[in-house]
């Protein structure tokens, strides 16, 4: 029983860590995308 609880806690923590990791990657990707979009728009509006 004790082993089962520890294993369950470990898998829960692993799942939480994986979810947080994917969220972190998503926000980094979103940030890079917004920076690129901002630079792209600045280049477009400077020309006109």
State the shape. Answer: rod-shaped
Supply Rg: 21 Å
Secondary-structure-derived class = mainly alpha
Q: How helical, in percent, are the residues?
A: over 70%
| Order of H and E elements | H
Distance between the ends? 71 Å
The total of beta strands comes to 0
Largest sheet: none
Instruction: Supply the number of helical segments.
Output: 1
- In the predicted model, the low-confidence regions spanning at least 5 consecutive residues are none
Overall pLDDT confidence: 88
- Portion of residues in beta strands equals under 5%
Please give a structural write-up.
The protein has 48 residues and is mostly helical. 96% of the residues lie in helices and 0% in strands. The protein contains one helix and no strands. The longest helix is centred in the middle third of the chain and has 46 residues. The chain is rod-shaped and about 70 Å long.
What's the SSE blueprint?
Blueprint: H1 2-47
Can I get a quick summary?
This protein has 48 residues and is mainly alpha-helical. The chain is 96% helix and 0% strand.
């Amino acid at each position: 029983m004790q082993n089962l609880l520890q294993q369950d806690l470990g898998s829960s923590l692993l799942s939480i860590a994986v979810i947080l990791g994917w969220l972190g990657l998503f926000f980094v990707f979103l940030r890079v995308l917004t920076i690129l979009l901002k630079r792209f728009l600045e280049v477009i509006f400077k020309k006109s």
